[in-house]
Automatic annotation (TrEMBL):
GO terms for molecular function: 1-phosphatidylinositol-3-kinase regulator activity. It comes from the Eukaryota. Coiled coil: none annotated. It comes from Apteryx owenii. It holds the Pfam family PI3K_1B_p101. GO terms for cellular component: phosphatidylinositol 3-kinase complex, class IB. One of its GO terms (biological process) is G protein-coupled receptor signaling pathway. This is Phosphoinositide-3-kinase regulatory subunit 6. InterPro entries: PIK3R5/6.
Length: 754
């Protein structure tokens, strides 16, 4: 195909993509979400198309900016940057135009200025050291060992087996495993070397000869040259005024050394060859245990391969559980929190490095030296905790904390600042019910981290959501919690799609596509589509979706009609639903029927809530009414509404007397509040269901209190502050600068576009 025809075809596809953003969908609904994929596949199939695609996207961006079509800017910019990362050679002129356009976005409101600044910083490094973005992405996603860039990433896909069919789960397991087959560390290192040479030295490289030389080379030599390339690119990219000629000279030196005496390849010089961008490291998990998320994150930070004994990590996990139990028991006696101590005084807690630094002792010396006995770790003072937080912050102004040495005769040395070198990208596959489980797990994780900090200073957590709804969901998960339809089960995804059109186009379209692909009969075409399309879309989402939308997590305290039963505490993200509960005993049934005859169906409730007013002043409202049930929605129907607000719909029963007798009518009573208390005045219990999941239903409820869930670390610091100022009602000191509410961030491509 000639260059003019290729350019015309790509331009037509880009214009079709923009029409889809305007709401004009293609003739075939199944094509939604595949337009972006086909554009980037053209680069993979023919790298010579990369400059054409980038040039067209730059022109469309400039046209959108002139015509004030802001809803085009972020989708086009993401598509452009993804093409720039994958493309081996882009001219300096095109990179300069994209860089200038990103700087123009700094004058626009969020999220345009945020995304523009992020991409401008990346482009500046890419222009200084071509191929740097590709190199960093491959190193982090494949966890390749690299001292200049020691960052690691992993994608965790979590699916609830009771919400998705077995066919969908099996298909996703097969796809994620197949995507990792051809991605050995050696192959990924070779990709980085070849891409750096092509990006830095241009199209004159002998790519075929370079590939042949790397294939014939021992693995140790490939790793050696990989490290040399990484050092050269990172050093140049991190310099303020780097000398481009010196960088190219160093790459030329490495290129000649790697190529050696290999005969020239059969591909003509100047003809680009495709260098694949490997899929990220993806693992698929069926969510069967409540603390499974936390365990997987700990395994990511401390893999079993780093332990001398296979059971060492599981023992550490048990120690975490024991420490949490000790903290909880002592909290029952007095208000206290267990935090990470700098020195426990227990022998087994000595790090491996400290043990190895000491020469092996004889048996007599081992018996004669002082032994550390088992004991309970001493609680650190607030100053020590603040110092630990400073050590966890990767800021130049943080003070270095002096670590007390366990061995005598060793001079104290500063503790190395903890850096978040690990990034866990958690992809939740399903509907609102799995997001409700995520809110529970996230709240549990934050409480665990408050008691004993481990993951927070080391791990960067990113959450993603791909909606999937099957035709016939598991009846165990929907009984007693009737959802109106698929739209009701995907309220979060619907909100994200309305707030971010690019999320709607690329991710929400998978809601019905994944079940169809999973149930397709086995064929070569099905294997091609699922392996390429689903894996690529997930990779594109986790790579480019870096703008979070924060959802408020709500806490509910539940009281039961049995005084001996302890109140329950839980959290929810999307919905709380109450309904009347059938009477159990004949006496209660007879009394309820008599009451219904006089007062109508339902139960008498006392509702106390804080009314939402424009001035943000607190206005307490109390009322009594008869109701058959209510529903609290935490996700607004309009993206312009406040996310930190509960929309309460109470079905109120109104009694009226007329000539024909007594009649009853149901009226919808709508409230907007941040916190609410509801109690059954006649002591008749009702049923409560959280996040549309019957597995999280509570029976025999007599009263409940709902309010925004507080961040556990805020509660810890607030408790410490109250010890020293018992009469202070307002937040003072460090508490003023800490996040008060627990927010669950879910990443999209643009966040919320106002």
């Amino acid at each position: 195909m000639e260059s003019a025809e290729v350019e015309s075809d790509i331009l037509r596809r880009v214009r079709t993509l923009l029409r889809e953003l305007d709401g004009h969908h293609p003739a075939f609904q199944c094509d939604r979400g595949m337009l972006r994929w086909t554009l980037h596949k053209k680069i993979d199939q023919n790298p010579n198309n990369s400059s054409i695609l980038v040039g067209i996207l730059v022109k469309e961006l400039e046209r959108a900016e002139r015509s004030d079509y802001r809803h085009y800017i972020i989708p086009l910019l993401h598509t452009l940057m993804y093409a720039l990362i994958k493309a081996p050679c882009i001219s300096e002129d095109l990179c300069s135009r994209v860089y200038d356009f990103c700087k123009k976005l700094l004058t626009l409101p969020k999220p345009f200025c945020t995304i523009g600044l992020d991409y401008a910083v990346r482009l500046k490094m890419e222009r200084t050291a071509p191929g740097m973005l590709y190199q960093r992405m491959v190193i982090s996603e494949q966890s390749l060992k690299s001292d200049p860039y020691p960052y690691q990433e992993k994608v965790f896909i979590f699916a609830d087996p009771e919400l998705l069919s077995e066919a969908i789960c099996n298909a996703l397991v097969t796809d994620t495993e197949a995507a990792q087959v051809s991605q050995s560390p050696r192959a990924c290192m070779s990709y980085v070397i070849i891409h750096a040479m092509l990006a830095g030295l241009g199209e004159g490289c002998d790519i075929s000869g370079l590939k042949r030389s790397l294939q014939d080379m021992p693995a140790n030599d490939v790793e050696h040259w990989f490290r040399q390339v990484v050092v050269a690119v990172e050093c140049t990219g991190n310099k303020v005024n780097a000398d481009r000629s010196q960088h190219m000279a160093r790459l030329e030196e490495i290129y000649r050394a790697v190529l050696g005496s290999v005969p020239a390849g059969d591909t003509p010089l100047g003809e680009l060859q495709g260098i694949p961008l490997p899929n990220p490291n993806i693992s698929f998990h069926l969510w069967t245990e409540d603390d499974q998320l936390w365990k997987e994150l700990v395994l990511f930070i401390r893999p079993l391969s780093q332990s001398c004994e296979p059971d060492l990590l599981s023992q550490d996990l048990d120690n975490f559980e024991i420490q949490d139990i000790i903290s909880d028991c002592e909290c029952c006696k007095q208000t206290r929190f267990s935090v990470l101590s700098t020195d426990s005084g227990i022998e087994r807690d000595l790090p491996a490095a400290a043990e190895e630094s000491v020469a092996p002792c004889s048996a007599e010396t081992e018996q004669s030296r002082l032994q550390r006995k088992g004991g309970i770790k001493k609680k650190a003072s607030p100053l020590e905790s603040v110092a630990f937080l400073q050590a966890g912050c990767n800021s130049p102004g943080a003070k270095q904390v002096m670590k007390p040495q366990r061995r005598s005769g060793i001079t104290p040395e500063p503790v190395a600042l903890l850096q978040r070198q690990h990034t866990a990208r958690i992809v939740l596959l399903g509907d609102d019910r799995i997001l409700g489980r995520l809110a529970q797990a996230y709240h549990s994780l934050r409480k665990r981290e408050t008691r004993r900090v481990f993951l927070t200073p080391r791990l960067n957590l990113q959450f993603y959501h791909i909606p999937v709804v099957t035709g016939q969901p598991n009846t165990l998960a929907v009984a007693n919690c009737p959802a109106a339809g698929r739209e009701e089960l995907c309220e979060v995804a619907g909100y994200l799609g309305r707030a971010d059109p690019w999320y709607e186009s690329n991710i929400n379209t998978l809601c019905h596509m994944i079940p169809k692909l999973a149930t397709m009969p086995s064929s070569p075409s099905k294997h091609l589509v699922t392996d390429l399309f689903l894996t690529d879309v997930i990779a594109y989402y986790v790579r480019m979706g870096i703008q979070p939308v924060c959802f408020q997590v709500y806490a509910v305290k539940i009281f039961f009609n049995d005084p001996a039963q302890e109140p329950a505490e839980d959290v929810f993200l999307t919905e709380l639903l109450t309904s009347m509960q059938e009477s159990i005993s004949h006496r209660e049934l007879a009394m309820s029927k008599k009451k219904m005859t006089l007062d109508g169906p339902g139960i008498d409730l006392t509702v106390t809530y804080r009314k939402v007013v424009v001035s943000d002043r607190v206005k307490e409202v109390a009322m009594s009414l008869r109701s058959t049930g209510l529903v609290m929605k935490a996700i607004p129907a309009d993206e312009a509404e406040d996310l930190v607000c509960l929309n309460v719909n109470i079905t109120e029963i109104i009694k009226s007397n007329n000539l024909s007798g007594r009649s009853f009518s149901a009226v919808a009573n709508r409230l907007k509040t941040h916190s609410i208390k509801i109690r059954s005045t006649e002591q008749r219990p009702f049923t409560l269901c959280l996040d549309k999941d019957s597995r999280r239903a509570y029976r025999n409820v007599i009263s409940m209190e709902v309010s925004p869930c507080l961040e556990p670390s805020y509660c810890l610091q607030k408790t410490r502050t109250m010890k020293f100022s018992l009469h202070e009602a307002e937040d003072v000191g460090l508490v003023k600068y800490m996040p008060k509410s627990l927010l669950l961030p879910i990443n999209t491509f643009a966040g919320v576009i106002q």
